[in-house]
Write a structure and sequence with these properties.
The protein is mainly alpha-helical. Helices cover about 60% and strands about 5% of the residues.
Length: about 375
């Protein structure tokens, strides 16, 4: 073929497509995916190949012995690569023929089989994992296999723990440094202490691990104290909010009038009307009793109404324009009381204002009524 024909053919050959580009952002995103997503990058065929290698034992040089003198084969180089604890154990157990012997006594045979299989292909059956999750957690900790420990922790955290086994799981989790499971177990004990403390696991623990018992009892006491403290704070906030609403209603009644009581120059709404101030009805009734009571000095109802008016005077900024009776007189009396008594009223006023602020920005539409 002439050189001219060769050059003509070369010109007619289409250009190959560009190579796939791997950007830094794409690479970084793929590395930041969680383990469940990253595992999909490994082809299923590859996992099946490693699983097949384990099950067939071709070229194996290690005998894995379990109870009842049963054993199955494994490959020392795979075990050594999967667990940093294995190399020394394999070296110490190697015989003259170069074969190693690993013994897993006192562990269910199925759990040992699942453990060695996981070192090959990270494969497991979900139902089997749920059944043998506790011995697998121990094996993952003893042989430093964090990927298996994460699986065990995930399984245990998905409703596996109950009040009957929570103490046993807690003790095991503490031994295996599984902080999340320890937290879940402790939370369950605190949440349902009465039921857990009546189980056989708790009774056994009290006889063999008094230190853990003391820690759990202290945790329960602290949790109860925190709950009681939260309950008191909620009760205090509710009380301050009720005082805030009562002061609002008091000012509303003497400024605008409501129901059957109010300024003389205002048209009252009557009892059937619906008032936007939630405490108005109660304050209205208290004022009617206060105005008509002949024994105010010893009457508890009158004393509370007097304190409400005094609280209003601490909050009120309108010295001359306030329409609430006695507000100005009480402000003058506040200057004559002791510093200690005055600080109590000022502190109460601060709490009441804070309770009103927690109602949100819409509460300020009526804020002018309070002052």
């Amino acid at each position: 073929m002439a050189s001219s024909e060769v050059s003509t053919c070369a010109k007619n050959i289409p250009k190959p497509p560009p190579l796939p580009r791997v950007t830094y952002r794409g690479l970084q995103a793929s590395r930041s995916k969680p383990s469940s997503s990253s595992s999909r990058l490994v082809p299923r065929e590859t996992v099946e190949t490693w699983d097949k290698l384990f099950k067939q034992g071709t070229g194996a040089d290690t005998y894995v012995e379990v109870d009842n003198k049963s054993h199955f084969l494994a490959h020392s180089y795979i075990l050594a690569a999967a667990s940093p604890v294995m190399p020394q154990l394999l070296h110490q157990s190697r015989d003259k023929k170069g074969n190693s012997h690993l013994k897993f006594l006192g562990v269910p045979q199925e759990a040992v089989y699942m453990f060695i299989r996981f070192l090959y292909s990270c494969s497991y059956e979900e139902e089997e994992m749920k059944k043998f999750v506790l011995p697998l957690l121990v094996l993952s900790h003893c042989y430093s296999v964090p990927s298996l420990k994460r699986v065990c922790v995930e399984v245990l955290g998905q409703g596996w723990i109950n009040k009957e086994n929570v103490i046993d799981v807690l003790q095991l989790a503490r031994s295996c440094d599984a902080a999340r499971i320890s937290f879940l177990c402790t939370s369950m004990v605190i949440r349902d202490f009465k039921s857990v403390s009546s189980t056989e696991g708790w009774k056994v623990m009290t006889r063999g691990d008094r230190k853990l018992e003391q820690e759990l009892l202290e945790a329960v006491v602290e949790a109860d104290a925190r709950r009681e403290e939260r309950r008191k704070k909620v009760e205090e906030r509710r009380m301050y909010l009720e005082l805030y609403e009562a002061v609002e209603a008091l000012v509303h009644i003497y400024r605008e009038g409501c129901g059957t009581i109010g300024p003389r120059d205002k048209a009252l709404k009557g009892r059937e009307s619906v008032c936007e101030f939630s405490a108005c009805k109660g304050v209205e009734g208290g004022l009617r009793h206060f105005l008509g009571c002949k024994s105010r000095a010893s009457c508890g109802h009158c004393k509370r109404m007097w304190q409400l008016i005094q609280l209003h005077s601490c909050l009120c900024d309108g010295f001359d324009s306030c329409e609430v009776p006695l507000c100005r007189n009480l402000k003058e009396q506040m200057k004559k009381i002791s510093k200690r008594e005055e600080s109590k009223w000022r502190l109460l006023a601060e709490h009441v204002i804070a309770a009103g602020n927690r109602l949100g920005p819409f509460s300020f539409s009526r804020r002018s009524a309070l002052i």
